[in-house]
Write a structure and sequence with these properties.
Two copies of one chain form a homodimer. Chain A is of the alpha/beta class. Chain A contains 15 helices and 30 strands. The interface between A and B is large, with 58 and 58 residues.
């Protein structure tokens, strides 16, 4: 340790947000804020001052944002993301001699001491600042320098010395002593708005055929676009659309032997018709897909593809790149398995291959191929079974060239693994929402997602069901359970999706003792009665409209748990930063019984006067209620509607 | 980002302990453990394994310590500090192919699948390991390789394959795939035991004169050594012993005008007789001091000096190094102040001087000078008013040459500043204990000190009083309050000290409305009646003996709060790691009234059977009680003794 280099006396530590020492960026969309905190202090009793320095990637110079001092040497400041470009931020602190001097002067003056010498010291500080000031204010500083030296004006000098006007000038032009800059420049990756606010509809195109048993096509998809748009979805997501292998093809209900008419699982990718860059012939052609993409766009809908990096035994890669697969001692290729379960229709890709570089280049080219066809959203299947370093690299590469492309990580696995994928670049992530049921569950999990560091990089996408998962509460709760789950998904998280039409038709038939659908669409073509009377189509349409019309529901980070006096009643508030839009959601979590109780509205935070009534407007039923103070009565019958979505509007004098 | 370099699939994060990204070391003494935790995981479903790598500074190679896997990918391991030398540690993780294989084999076997091919794969893993194994075990591995290939031995092969014997061999010799090593090598600074366990007695030597008004000397100190040793102290600490300035000397009770007989404050350092390397002539000579140091040693007592880097106007530095002091516009030197208070007898040193390098070299040489005279413990006055970088440097320099030297930071200031000084090297720190009074206070503060990251680098030293601070509860609570405070200081913290004889004589006279002593010893020579009947000498002696005899009280980190049903009764447990010594302390926090109630003993943690009585032995009174299960009755009258210090011994069947 050398002593000859003078170190700054200022310490900057406890910087937030900072993910894994700044190894990973935080994520934002345009319009969001970055709330920066740090602990900044120095030795001795000198006043310290601090700034957030931030800039867009394309800017050369830092912008300076004053930080505000709180208790225990904690400083904070907030800046808004204005453009879809990566940002950088760091922190700078220094000894503020002028503030130190002001504080001393004020104490001495209050104690009746002689401050003439102090004013001379102040004049010296002003003189130094005047040199820094390139602007017109120099003359004022210079004038005050002269004044301070004139002992006759003692009262007015002290008045000016302690004034806000002078404080402001000196904050800008005062000499900064012992400047410290934080060791890291921290990054914000800025995505397009859809990364934060999106509404997904997953559908198997092959089940959309018009005639009984007919294989659905992209043209059939075009036909149902108006219906999907009416329901208010803006992402239409398809399971893999590639040719399906025939070797070891699975039959209905995942049986090991397929009938000759069984279509196979779309996740058994590749046949002699092609692999990940080809389209399953029965779905149509590339130009059909492109027409669908274009037509969807006119409805405000984006088509998203499922990318699953795995191969059927018939995939061209198996012949062309045998080195990309793992072999067993008998020379057979190792199929996928979750012992003792075997997935013999699927070969995993072996990322341990010596040909890693070519392999990953090829996989990247799959994304690029579909991007060029007009796809800008990918749902990535099981990303946690591929190396993190691969995702870090491929998402980074693609973001550079195609900054609008979004990746959703379908990783249902351990928390740290899911977090690591999000840190590495995935713009959205599947979550445990699917299995969360009780009030305790929701308050815990929402706090984990929104009140911890995860909020900075992990954007949840809530799914009540998927083709793989029909959770127990949907199996047993009937139509009210489906209503509850879609309200919860759509209001808790600004990104959510359903797997339809199974969802809106309340398909609840599961394999005995499992969370899997009977006659799963993964292995057969289904015929859905999309116009059934019990369909939740209209209910979902209303919820999605409420989401579009209420900015408070277009972010997940503003979740605020509200206490209730009945554990079946879950209540939370979502309000915009400026409080111009406040939505209170109340859900009866019991799909069988009516429940009543009181919920507590944080009126102070909403700026509602203590002696004022305010109006709550149920956007689902159009009912209006006059509420008063914190605790208010609710009553929810799941058989009519298990939830209130209440817009809180203004306050009215009693 | 380049894709061509293969990155490890293993992630190591959330490493603990790690202070500010490893910028600062953790602290230990010989015999303490380092409990290391980390989150270690990889993509996919392969089994991961992890080790702590650690070594002493003088060792070239890492020692390997297997980590244990807990929930949520958390791993932990613990190593013991065996020598007084700095240690380093880091973490290594890898994909454990053998464990992965074992898990798969076990599942396939349980499900009745054909595992013959799996055993061949296992044989390949063993074969690779046999190449790694330089030891005699190779032959076993090779034998098993042959066995595994023999399909006839299926049952015994599976039995061996899943056996612990083979697991152990393969943990050692199995090929480690995709090894990741944590980015930081983290440091442990290891101090001598006294850094963790020390008992301080602060005294003004000048008040130890035998005749009325006579200035005490080092010889007088020698005389009272037996008394201090009887009381059980092992550090005898003196306020500054240097020549005291006469310019602007303060009189009694800090008055601005001194009588000609006033001795001045020992913190107004320096006169024509010398500065920080000189001894105040009335105390004696350097050889007197050295004899005292030697004599103290025979009593097991170390002499500690107060080092205060500040000068009286008469200090030689003021003339020789005028550039080390700050000047005001009228050319006068800036005296110390805490506006509107002025300390005109003291000039602070200006670390902003252009001559920083010479200044700091000189200050370092002051420590070195006293070390050479035999002083190995320094209490540093107001270190927070000097730059952190200076302390980082000077303590590091001195540790290298004199690893036994200890520094105690007397910084009563904001939490982050106190923490930063400890991080920078101070082996012990003053704390807020002095002002903590209620059960809530203690449970909060002890948790902060012992259950947060602070435990890794901040060693508290608890002081019930100091020459500067006579806290309100001692002013009002009478003798019982002094008894409470010394029990609390001595049992909560393994490092504690008192300022005597003011403490044991229960001096409670404060300046009106202040926390300062009337007729403070800082400004005058006091005559103490050290043999007064009300002296707590014997009580303190007993407490210090209990500390010496009970290892549970020789660390601070084992504090465990125990619930009580009376908020006046504070109870906590301290037990050694091996539970061989368990001390339960119960203190009545009210110095005026008797209180009774129940305290809850964590019997499960102590390994006391649920249906067994156990004996608690009050080491203060020698009373013994038979207790049963968790909640037990206590009753404490502050006027006899406000505390129990109970040794819990074994358990007896009912």
């Amino acid at each position: 340790m050398k002593n000859s280099i003078r170190k700054s006396r200022v310490v900057i530590e406890g910087v937030y947000p900072e993910i894994d020492r700044g190894k990973f960026p935080i994520k934002r969309v345009v319009g969001e804020n970055v709330d920066v905190k740090a602990v900044v202090y120095a030795d001795a009793h000198d006043e310290v001052n601090a700034l957030v320095l931030y800039r867009q990637k394309s800017e050369k110079h830092w912008r300076e944002l004053p930080m505000l001092k709180g208790i225990r040497d904690q400083w904070s400041a907030s800046f808004r993301i204005e453009e879809q470009e990566d940002y950088y931020y760091t922190i700078c602190g220094w000894i503020d001699e002028f503030m130190t001097w002001q504080r001393k002067l004020s104490k001495l003056w209050a104690a009746g001491h002689d401050v003439r010498l102090e004013l001379i010291i102040g004049a010296q500080l002003l003189e130094a600042a005047a040199k820094n000031d390139s602007a017109s204010n120099t003359k004022w500083l210079k004038k005050w320098v002269e004044d301070f030296k004139n002992e006759g004006n003692l009262f007015s000098n002290v008045y000016i010395a302690l004034s806000d006007v002078l404080s402001d000038q000196m904050r800008k032009y005062g000499k900064r002593k012992s400047i410290a800059t934080y060791s890291e420049e921290l990054k914000v990756t800025v995505d397009r708005t859809k990364a934060l606010f999106s509404t997904w509809y997953e559908v198997f195109p092959r089940s959309l055929g018009q005639k009984d048993g007919a294989h659905g096509t992209f043209k059939d998809c075009e036909r149902i676009l108006p219906e999907i748009a009416d329901m208010g979805f803006d992402v239409l997501y398809f399971p893999p659309i590639h040719p399906i292998g025939s070797s070891k093809r699975k039959g209905k209900n995942n049986s090991a032997l397929a009938d000759k008419n069984d279509p196979g699982s779309p996740w058994a990718i590749g046949s002699q018709k092609g692999g990940h860059k080809s389209i399953h012939p029965q779905l149509g052609t590339l130009s059909d897909l492109k027409r669908l993409i274009a037509k969807a766009k006119t409805y405000g809908i984006e088509v998203a593809l499922d990318i699953a990096f795995q191969c059927s035994p018939d995939h061209p890669y198996v012949k062309i790149h045998p080195e990309w697969f793992k072999r067993r001692p008998d020379k057979s290729i190792q199929y996928a398995e979750n012992p003792p379960k075997k997935y013999e229709d699927i070969y995993p890709i072996n990322f341990d291959t010596d040909d890693y570089e070519n392999l990953t280049k090829e996989l990247k080219s799959i994304f690029v191929y579909w991007i060029k066809q007009g796809i800008h959203i990918f749902r990535v299947d099981n990303p946690h079974t591929k190396p993190f370093a691969f995702w870090d690299w491929v998402i980074d590469q693609i973001r550079k060239e195609y900054p609008n492309v979004l990746f959703l990580a379908e990783a249902f696995t351990r928390p740290h693994v899911m977090q690591r994928l999000a840190k590495g670049g995935f713009q959205q992530s599947y979550t445990y929402f699917t299995w969360r049921m009780s009030l305790w569950d929701f308050s815990q999990y929402m706090n984990e997602l929104t009140q911890t560091e995860m909020r900075e990089y992990f954007r949840p996408n809530f799914w009540p069901n998927t083709p793989d998962i029909l959770p127990v509460h949907l199996q047993n709760g009937g139509r009210p359970a489906f209503m509850q789950r879609v309200v919860l998904a759509a209001t808790l998280s600004s990104n959510y999706g359903i797997y339809g039409p199974a969802f809106e038709l309340c398909d609840a038939q599961a394999l005995q003792g499992k969370e899997e659908y009977i006659n799963s669409e993964k292995y057969e073509i289904k015929k859905w009665n999309r116009d059934a009377a019990w369909s939740l189509k209209d209910f979902i349409a209303k919820i999605n409209m409420i989401r579009r019309e209420n900015p408070a529901l277009q972010t997940t980070w503003n979740f605020k748990f509200c206490p209730t006096n009945n554990e079946n009643i879950f209540c939370f508030l979502k309000a915009t930063r400026d409080r111009s839009n406040s939505i209170l959601v109340v859900v009866n979590l019991d799909p069988f019984n009516k429940h009543a109780g009181s919920v507590c509205v944080p009126v102070e935070e909403l700026g509602i006067g203590y002696h004022r009534h305010y109006s709550v407007h149920d956007l689902l039923t159009n009912d209006k209620y006059a509420w008063y103070r914190g605790w208010n009565y609710v009553e929810l019958d799941p058989h009519s509607c298990p939830a209130h979505i209440l817009r809180i509007s203004g306050d009215e004098q009693v």
